[in-house]
Design a protein that fits this description.
Radius of gyration: 27 Å
Structural class: alpha+beta
Strand content: over 45%
Keywords: Signal
Shape: globular
Number of domains: 1
Number of helices: 2
Length: about 180
C-alpha cells in the first residue's frame, strides 16, 4: 500500500505543481480604478459643513450627488452644495462671471463691487433663496472663490472659497476653509 501511494504521488505531484504555477499569472488582477470624490465642504460659523449624498431641488435647479455646478448665459458659473441633516437642510451657493482663463481668483462682494456673489441658505427651496437674496442683498458680503481646476472635457470644477455675509438684524454667517472637489456641471 505504501508503494502504491508513493508511486501515484510521483505522477500527480508534477501535475498539481504545474496547475498551481499556471494560476499565478500577473494578468489575473484587474487594473485599479481611480475613484474621484466630489462635493463641497466648509466650516460655517465654527461648525463643519459638507455636502450630502442625494438629489435636491433649489428653485429651478436640481443638485445631484449633493453638489452641482451650472454654467449659464454669459459664462456665469454657479456652484451649489446641499447638506441634509435630520435637524435641518442648508446650502452654500457661489456664483461668478468666469474670465476667459476660467482658473483664477474671483471676488465675492455685495452689489456690483465684485465678480460674483455667495450665499449661505438656512433652507433649501426657491423661496428660501429669494428670501436670502432679499435679506442680505443690501448687506455686506465679502470673500473669494479660487478656481484651481476647470475641466471642460470632463465637466468638473475644483477650488476653494471663503466668505462672510451679514445684514442689519440678520444672522452673520462666516464660511471658511471651503473646498470644491470635482463638482460636475
Amino acid at each position: 500500500m505504501k508503494n502504491f501511494f508513493c508511486k501515484h504521488i510521483l505522477y500527480f505531484l508534477p501535475i498539481l505543481c504545474g496547475l498551481f504555477l499556471a494560476a499565478c499569472g500577473d494578468d489575473d488582477m484587474p487594473d485599479p480604478t481611480v475613484v474621484t470624490t466630489s462635493g463641497m465642504s466648509a466650516v460655517v460659523n465654527g461648525a463643519d459643513w459638507s455636502s450630502s449624498n442625494g438629489n435636491f431641488k433649489l428653485g429651478n435647479r436640481t443638485i445631484t450627488d449633493g453638489a452641482s455646478a451650472f454654467v449659464g448665459s454669459g459664462d456665469t458659473l454657479t456652484i451649489i452644495g446641499v447638506q441634509a441633516l435630520p435637524t435641518d437642510t442648508t446650502a452654500i451657493m457661489l456664483s461668478v462671471k468666469l474670465s476667459p482663463e476660467k482658473v483664477g481668483t474671483y471676488q465675492l462682494r455685495s452689489g456690483t463691487a465684485g465678480q460674483g456673489k455667495a450665499y449661505f441658505l438656512t433652507k433649501v427651496s426657491g423661496n428660501a433663496l429669494a428670501e436670502t437674496k432679499e435679506k442680505y442683498g443690501a448687506g455686506i458680503t465679502n470673500g473669494n472663490l479660487r478656481i484651481t481646476s476647470y475641466d471642460a472635457a470632463n465637466y468638473s470644477v475644483s477650488g476653494d472659497f471663503a466668505f462672510s455675509m451679514s445684514a442689519t438684524g440678520e444672522t452673520t454667517y462666516t464660511v471658511v476653509a471651503g473646498e470644491i472637489d470635482n463638482v460636475t456641471f
